[in-house]
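Tip: read the tokens left to right.
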């Protein structure tokens, strides 16, 4: 029989994170989200809770084996209080899964600091001319004595402005598409590296920015993983992160729904609570249904990951639909609040702007639908 129950250990972990999310994160979310300053103090608290090392090696402070469901549970629960900080376990898990293939010196230098919340590392894949088509990157790693010289530009990079280093993906001269792409760890204070802030309408604390490299020397010791196999390595982990991102957006939406329920119960119009009117209660019922359906789709994708079963298409479903469901739920909560929902004194408008980013970030709906459609046809023996 299929079980939808979390383990006792997972439920206890969830309860710990719920207390932290509601008591520590939620009260300061609006002010943190309105600032471009990265909250390292709170990140270190997440490290103390053991949130940042989920699925990373124990010898560096992590929990050990990959644990997709616990990671999803953590991001969903934390997003109730702060959707921006909830992205940290995903980001660190994605980067850490690459760094475990680096030299021991790099692993010792970065993994414990990341897991403890003392240091951040960015992942720089996207370029101005190759957003969803990541394999079309043009950044080049030219071999030189002792290493490589990297030239290119990366854009729309989360944590670019607060990271001490970045995983830069660049290709061998003359290579095309996914072939010949390698991953290099580049300190962002290195010579000939420039970082520019790119303020967005939301996600300000994440330090969204661009990274310019002009013949930046990278020593052989800073190659991460196998030469020419960097693209395949990172793409395999996006299936993991996409479902967790979906849950992150849903956690933020649930907070907005709960606020709308409380407001609809307290706010009276024409002599009774507005929750008594179907125009309000039916909105809440509909969005509760969508949130529940999207939530379990994400967990199924993570369960398939845990079972080592095919899950790429379901991960893409979890990336394009749940953020839309979350955005729509938050918008409904704003309307239920009336003019207060639009006010900057309330967190609703901030969540709306922060969640909106994930309609595009980490793969647009269009690229996810392309992946899903490919799976649909292949299952029926049709090559598209």
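Filled-in amino acids:
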């Amino acid at each position: 029989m299929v079980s939808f129950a979390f383990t006792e250990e997972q439920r206890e972990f969830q309860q710990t994170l719920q207390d932290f999310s509601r008591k520590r994160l939620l009260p300061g979310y609006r002010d943190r989200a309105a600032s471009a300053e990265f909250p390292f103090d709170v990140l270190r608290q997440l490290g103390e809770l053991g949130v940042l090392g989920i699925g990373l090696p124990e010898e560096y402070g992590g929990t050990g084996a990959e644990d997709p469901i616990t990671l999803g549970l953590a991001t969903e629960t934390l997003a109730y209080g702060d959707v921006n900080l909830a992205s940290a376990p995903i980001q660190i898990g994605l980067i850490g899964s690459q760094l475990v293939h680096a030299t021991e010196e790099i692993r010792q230098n970065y993994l414990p600091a990341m897991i403890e919340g003392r240091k951040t590392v960015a992942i720089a894949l996207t370029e101005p001319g190759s957003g969803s088509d990541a394999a079309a990157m043009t950044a080049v790693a030219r071999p030189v004595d002792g290493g490589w010289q990297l030239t290119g530009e990366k854009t729309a990079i989360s944590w670019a402005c607060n990271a001490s280093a970045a995983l830069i993906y660049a290709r061998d001269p003359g290579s095309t598409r996914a072939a010949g792409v390698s991953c290099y760890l580049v300190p962002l204070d290195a010579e000939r590296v420039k970082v520019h802030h790119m303020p967005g309408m939301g996600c300000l604390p994440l330090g969204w920015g661009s990274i310019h490299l002009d013949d930046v020397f990278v020593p052989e010791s800073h190659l991460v993983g196998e030469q020419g196999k960097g693209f395949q390595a990172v793409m395999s982990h996006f299936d993991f992160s996409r479902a967790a991102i979906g849950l992150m957006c849903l956690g933020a939406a649930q907070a907005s729904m709960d606020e709308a329920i409380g407001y609809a119960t307290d706010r009276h119009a024409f002599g009774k609570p507005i929750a008594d009117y179907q125009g309000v209660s039916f909105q809440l019922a509909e969005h509760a249904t969508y949130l529940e359906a999207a939530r379990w789709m994400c967990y199924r994708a993570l369960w398939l990951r845990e079972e080592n079963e095919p899950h790429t298409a379901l991960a893409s479903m979890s990336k394009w639909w749940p953020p839309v469901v979350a955005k729509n739920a938050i918008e409904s909560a704003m309307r239920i609040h009336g003019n207060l929902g639009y006010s900057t004194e309330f967190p609703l408008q901030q969540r709306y702007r922060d969640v909106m980013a994930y309609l595009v970030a980490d793969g647009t709906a269009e690229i996810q639908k392309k992946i899903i459609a490919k799976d649909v046809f292949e299952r029926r023996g049709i090559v598209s």
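The domain at 8-120 is CATH 1.10.540.10 (Butyryl-Coa Dehydrogenase, subunit A; domain 1). The CA atoms of residues 2 and 157 lie 39 Å apart.
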